[in-house]
Amino acid sequence: MGAAGLSNLVQERPAGTQTTSGGAPRDLRIDFLRGFFILHLCATHFTWFADLVGYDSPFKFYGLPSFGLSSPAEFFVFFSGYVMVLVLGRSFDKAGFLLTQARTIDRAWSLYVLNLFTFVIVAAGSGFLFDPQTRLFVASGMGRLLADPSRFILDFVTFRDNLAFFEILRNYIFFIPLIALFLVLARVKPWLPIALSGLVWLAHQLGMTARLDYPTFNPFGWQFLFFLGGTVALTKPLTTWTFPRPVRQLALCLALLAFILLMKLVLFPGVQSENVPFASKTDVGPLRMLHFGLVLYTAMLLVPASAWLQRFMLTRAVIGVGQTSLECFCLSSVLVYLGAHLLGHAPESAALYWGLLVGMLVIELFAGRLFGWFKREPWRVR
Asked: What is the pTM of this model?
């Protein structure tokens, strides 16, 4: 594609062809990116499980962590904060603090129930999932669950323990009720809430926060990404981003990403991205934040306009996943556990690995459309 073609696909152009319930334009680029990274997260999780099962073929999915210092989880958290603040910010002035706070608590409770329901589905299969002799049995948390089910369940519902991939939603349950306060502070000064959030993140990087047993997603670090998304929604929504010289900017971004990959390969060969100094995944290290920002900007440069995304069945399906991201994320957790169990019967088979991975992604794409159909409540009289 030449420079002129790329300029037509990316901006300078208005965003969005759909409208929200409030009549505001909806930028399908955001939904597409959310859907894309949910699918990316599903593939990454399955590949991690596959490695633990014993699948050692180089013919596998290589995601963002293989080529840089960030992962699709950062995009999931960022866009969740972005959408939640965007939605609640529109009604905050009319609803007021108390009603907005009540709405956030109701949303957090719904999320808690959804996370618990997903856990119940996975835990119900704990008797047959995974060979107890595999590393996956221990790393997934299944060993702890079966060793003392009642204690593990109590620890799960009280946020003291988790199965693998259930950590992200646990943080959301704490982050979402803070949105009303975030909006109050933003009315004083738009930069005030993110400044406070940034100070908490910085204090955590310096080891000044309480030590919590969060091996993967420490809330003191990850809250910054969530509220960064909210700040972008209030101050510079992604729908307003324009790129006067997209080809030149894209070339620069890709060159920087290639340089980061080269430095990673030279300085830290064979080291996973979360173990690179200052790029910790648990704490969202500064290098991870910088890489995430660069990938986000590059993604906004690359993603086509809303009208183009609506032309194809596949892109519409990805948008559907993005518009039902929480439901699709929970479904992906169930699919990944089941897929890893099936792969355990023939962990050396590349055909089985790819068959399971493609099958999971197809189910996710179909489920996104189905969940969206239910959300539209077509049984109501219009």
From this structure: 0.90
